[in-house]
Amino acid sequence: MNVYKRFLKNKNYLNKIHVKSYPYPFDMDDAEEYEMQQFSLKCQRKDFNVHQLLKAACNEDFPLNPRLGGCSIDYPDVFFVNITKDIIFFIYDDRGCEIVARDVDRLRFLYKKYFDWVKDVDRKRIESGLGLNK
User: Is the dihedral of CA 98, 103, 104, 105 positive or negative?
Assistant: First the structure.
């Protein structure tokens, strides 16, 4: 939980973080010695420092601050879930992000709004998935 502490504006939210543990999902010889933990917090955008958290996610492959992890290569993944719009946003590193939504129209809107941000190499696949190249 210390990973997220510095990104919360109200430290009382630390007591509201839910933690679930799961078996380690990746195939490796000693996988039973590990576990995966999921931390979740129902909050609003104003409750945490979004810009610092996004920078930290982008900085994980570089010796830059802020960072989510320490020296470990197994830094945490952070997913932003907007439950009112049914959208999940995951920035995997400095190269990009993934956005998932229940309603394809929400994704089409975002694609059109941020069209210039999408790499040319990804356009055909994305447009096909959004039904834009018919």
Answer: negative
Distance in angstroms (rounded) separating the CA atoms of residues 94 and 58: 4
In terms of domains, do 82 and 112 share one? no
Q: What whole-number distance in Å separates Cα of residue 128 and Cα of residue 134?
A: 8
**Total residue count of the chain as it appears in this document:** 134
Beta bridge partners of 37: 21
| DSSP alpha helix (H) spans, the chain | 2-5, 50-58, 104-113, 120-129
pLDDT tens-digit map of 110-126 = 999 999 999 999 999 99
Residues 81 and 129 in one domain: no
Tokens standing for residue 95:
């190269």
> Are 23 and 51 in the same domain?
yes
Spatial separation of the C-alpha atoms in residues 45 and 106, rounded to whole Å: 19
The 10s digit of each residue's pLDDT in 38-84 is 999 999 999 999 999 999 989 888 888 998 876 555 678 889 999 99
Q: Do residues 88 and 125 share a domain?
A: no
